[in-house]
Amino acid sequence: MESTRGFILCLFLLVTISSSSAKVEEENPEFWRSQARETLQSALNRKINTNVAKNVVLFLGDGMGITTLTAARILKGQLQNQTGEETVMTMDTFPNVGLAKTYSVDFQIPDSAATATAYLCGVKTNINVIGVNAAARNGACKTQKGNEVTSILKWAKDAGKSVGIVTTTRVQHATPATSYAHSASRKWYSDADMPDSAKLDGCTDISSQLIRNIDIDVIIGGGRKYMTPRGTKDPEYPRDFSVRGKRKDGRNLITEWQKLKTGKVAHYVWNRTEFDAVNPETTDYLMALFEPGDLRFEVDRDPSMDPSIVETTEKAIRILQKNPKGFFLLVEGGRIDQAHHDGRAFMALHEAVAFDYAIARALELTKEHETLTIATADHSHTITHNGYPFRGQSILGKSPLWALDFRPYTTLMYGNGPGHKLINGSRPDIRDVNTSKITAVI
Ligand SMILES: *[C@@H]1O[C@H](CO)[C@@H](O)[C@H](O)[C@H]1NC(C)=O
Ligand SMILES: *[C@@H]1O[C@H](CO)[C@@H](O)[C@H](O)[C@H]1NC(C)=O
Ligand SMILES: *[C@@H]1O[C@H](CO)[C@@H](O)[C@H](O)[C@H]1NC(C)=O
Ligand SMILES: *[C@@H]1O[C@H](CO)[C@@H](O)[C@H](O)[C@H]1NC(C)=O
């Protein structure tokens, strides 16, 4: 690496400066050894739980790879005025850890549609398709028929359990949609998003499948605009033309849903006041759509209008857990991924921290002996965590070191996309560079 000398020079500085900021108790070997003993002892004391799970809560951090977890852990501690690196997230306390290979049938790096089909339906498939096997082709309605695969949401419902989806994106987005829909394209949110040929060939949009395919007890997220006829004013943003109803077929799926639930206690809400008024003890069905599209990022959320993922998770569990046969709940932290796509580490990490608090709330509301709780991700992102920030330095900060160009760099960095380093306003031109060469610098 070209900049090795630069690093070595500055590493010397780093050691000199940072030695003063060490925590006194950490200088004592017993501090580390007793921690190790306690960790080992609690692992040895743990009784293997062989019960059949009555309830399953699946927490899916979209795009929440290992680097995101590390950075979010540090941020979570730093938001509590700790140094952060030593913070224990709720996810960190789970007794079993595993890793999965996330490739899709056609791509080395998958998208959220292919991965959701893998972990919800148990079948690897192609990129961009949801709830169909790999014989179906992206965007080709004709290849969809006969290739549908069902999800754990349906299996749970068929077993007499209550089922729910909670997300921070629109409820028609790839992750939640795969639990209830079959679609050759993840983008067919409403009929207006489908080509005429797909409609002629008999395919239906994801929103219409949301209310028909499976009798879902709790639906919480965003996505109102895909549910109402074209031009319908949004209740929260009546003057904003861009968020008006999208549907060309003139259907209002919200009122259709309400009619389908006649005779049951079913609430449709779109704001915090109405959400808070929903009594989980007396509610059979809840559909809560807080935004026309995806929800706002947690740090941009207006708490007077929209509840947090902690609150939506709690409401869902309280409604679902009335069923003596148990429940299945999918909770998606869906905007970790979206923030990463935009190169916004600040947003992505705050989303991940909120997601971890939702997991903590779920553990408080359920019992371990009858509930399987899983926290996982579908794929990673190009975010990297660079050397050598000091202990306790802001995870969103800059290196105390300079590279050989005498410039600092950010602790977190993206390998591509808008967060990638630009040279003179554009990415380096590597068209004539053979990156497979042993001498290649990439
Ligand atoms: C952290 O410190 C800041 C500044 O002193 C203070 O405003 C904030 O309340 C503290 N937060 C916590 C969680 O202690
Ligand atoms: C919340 O929704 C209800 C039902 O549509 C409406 O009457 C109420 O005004 C809304 N609240 C706010 C603060 O917009
Ligand atoms: C950036 O632009 C300046 C001025 O046009 C030029 O001298 C320099 O070589 C450029 N750097 C790179 C890496 O292209
Ligand atoms: C790139 O380098 C590799 C390894 O030396 C070599 O096998 C390959 O043929 C090169 N590719 C091109 C396009 O020159």
Automatic annotation (TrEMBL):
Record-level Gene Ontology MF annotations: alkaline phosphatase activity; metal ion binding
UniProt signal peptide: 1-22
GO cellular component: plasma membrane; side of membrane
Cofactor note: Binds 2 Zn(2+) ions.
Residues annotated as binding Mg(2+): D62, H173, T175, E332
Membrane topology of the entry: Lipid-anchor; GPI-anchor
Transmembrane segments: none
Cofactor: Zn(2+); Mg(2+)
Annotated residues for binding of Zn(2+): D62, D337, H341, D378, H379
InterPro entries the UniProt entry points to: Alkaline_phosphatase, Alkaline_phosphatase_AS, Alkaline_phosphatase_core_sf
Subcellular location: Cell membrane
Enzyme Commission number(s) from the entry: 3.1.3.1
Superkingdom to which the source organism belongs: Eukaryota
Reaction equation(s) it catalyzes: a phosphate monoester + H2O = an alcohol + phosphate
Entry annotation: catalytic residues: S112 (phosphoserine intermediate)
One family name in Pfam for this protein: Alk_phosphatase
Assigned keywords, A-Z: Cell membrane, Glycoprotein, GPI-anchor, Hydrolase, Lipoprotein, Magnesium, Membrane, Metal-binding, Signal, Zinc
PANTHER family named among the record's database cross-references: ALKALINE PHOSPHATASE
Family: Belongs to the alkaline phosphatase family.
Summary of subunit composition and partner proteins: Homodimer.
UniProt name for this protein: Alkaline phosphatase
Naturally occurring in which organism (per UniProt): Cynoglossus semilaevis (Tongue sole)
Lineage: Eukaryota, Metazoa, Chordata, Craniata, Vertebrata
